[in-house]
Predict the structure.
Amino acid sequence: MNALIREQFPILHQEINGHPLVYLDNAATSQKPRAVIDAVTRYYEWENANVHRGVHTLGSRATDAYEGAREKVARFLHAKSTEEIIFTRGTTTALNLVASSYARSVCGPGDEIVLTEMEHHSNLIPWQQVALAVGATLKYIPIQPDGTINLDDVEKTVTSRTKIVAIAHVSNVMGVVHPVKAIGEIAHKNGAVIVVDGAQSTPHMKVDVQDLDCDFYTLSGHKMCAPTGIGALYGKKALLQKMEPIEFGGEMINDVGLYESTWKELPWKFEGGTPIIAGAVGLGAAIDFLEEIGMDEIERHESRLAAYAIDRLDEIDGITLYGPRERKVGLITFNLGDVHPHDVATVLDTQGIAIRAGHHCCQPLMRWLKVSSTARASFYLYNTEEDIDRLVSALIQTKEFFGDAT
């Protein structure tokens, strides 16, 4: 990626603790380009109104902007129609919608929900709650020593009792890209549906939900250059039509009587209340921005950075890297000897370098790794090899600072 792309992110042009900012916490949230900031500002300055209701000019403009953003999401994911795109607050809300509406209606005592131990809590706790509520059983696909999963193990874990397979497309800790298309084929062969957590994949690679043949797919806008508080759920139309809303009120109704009501058609029956209009506008602008660069080019850039980072990090004595050596996404999780990850992140912050430290909302995976927490550096389209060099240099200084602890 060239310097012209980096120039479009205003937040990157500052100093933190007297050093130029190196932002390596993109798996938590991405930074926003000027095009997205301007699109949200323009909406509030020229188009701000509630959608779908008003016949006045501003109402029409706002509705066009909101539904135009839905069209962009549908195109970005290669959905069959905009009816299959539900706006949500993000991946967490989308997964909870599927769990609360779809899963509770199809799962019963003895039915199975299949997961992995490396799922983000947002793709674990909702299914725990379903299992507790209906008497279903949670099953886990084994993790291989390098952090990948084996399709033979998927075949053994998914059975005729399985109703749902829920899995991240990309692990937010291990950096693994799971073969969700093949996993979906196994799920479908057994009469189950596959729910894909796309929070860590959608920003970094081309996603085609029709090619993947997934039943549900989720995304979070804030991880792909859009504002916080906006995301989307893709669902196959036939499944969404059978599902009941879980939020009720204005906007999602067709007719309201004193004792019963009916709902609007897809996708609006799931979008009760005033929607996240400005967020959707920002998400649409982010999609335009990413598509102009090209998702294939973004993936190639991140893959190169990941390879470079692994080679450079290998130079540091006492560092432990987690996950496979080969990876397509720019996400490296590590520990520096016995230095606590929070201490590592704190020292790096004094050098203007932002990384993540903690359990990354993956406590079961931390237990599988036999650690309490890890550090994580995650890259995006605006990061450079120079950023990685700064990271490595700062880690070496951290190691020297803590001395024997490493």
Observations:
- The chain has a mean pLDDT of 96.
